[in-house]
Amino acid sequence: MGRNIYIKNSRFVLREWQKEDEEELAELANNKKIYDNLRDAFPHPYTKEDAKAYIAMMSANKKDVGLAIEIDGKLAGSIGAFFKEDVYRKSAEIGYYLGEAYWGKGIMTEAVKVLTAYVFANYDINRIYAEPFARNIGSRRTLEKAGFILEGVLKQSVIKNNIFEDSCIYALLNLQYSTTDIKNQRECSKLTC
């Protein structure tokens, strides 16, 4: 499937999605707390059919990097970099979620650092950004701990559950990345196939 990306560190594995993930993904992603912090393209309830469709889509997608997060042999979440086009072609948006059982343990911060290092090392990208909802303090802290910088708060820019909300834009430039304390994360690119 895909490019056979496999990145392993002491806490988790980032790897390509597999058909065998369907059942675990449906169970993990069928969580209203996760849904409430993601775009409406992420369904709720999240069914096995949704999992099957997502895995098939990511397997066929040769442009973007969409990976499963695995901890101790179990599916724990999802992370990806989605490459933009036209005048934004040197930018990628990062997106992610983690199963609730894994929240608050620093796993996603580490996963964001690893994926950021992988993207900057393997693609001609100048900027990686994320757009969390302003109220999603956990996601914002994840990005900040991973070296991303808050570029702005967009007032009432999204509507989720029929409520207008603020969103944020966090970004990390390749130049900034090269000079931050996460520079040593570039080593992860040596762990890929």
The largest sheet is:
8 strands, mixed
Counting DSSP E segments of at least 2 residues, the number of strands comes to 8
Strand order within the widest beta sheet: 1-2-3-4-5-6-8-7
Averaging pLDDT over every residue, what do you get?
A: 91
* Molecular shape: globular
Approximately how much beta-strand content do the residues carry? Answer: 25-35%
Q: Architecture in CATH?
A: 3-Layer(aba) Sandwich
Q: How many angstroms does the end-to-end distance come to? A: 13 Å
The helix/strand series, from N terminus to C terminus, equals EEHHHEEEHEHEEH
Percentage of residues in helical conformation: 25-40%
Taking all Cα atoms into account, the compactness measure Rg is: 16 Å
The CATH superfamily is Gcn5-related N-acetyltransferase (GNAT)
Contiguous runs where pLDDT drops below 50 for at least 5 residues: 181-193
What is the count of helical runs? 6
- Strand-pairing-aware structural class: alpha+beta
Can you identify the CATH class? Alpha Beta
By CATH, the topology is Aminopeptidase
Domains (count): 1
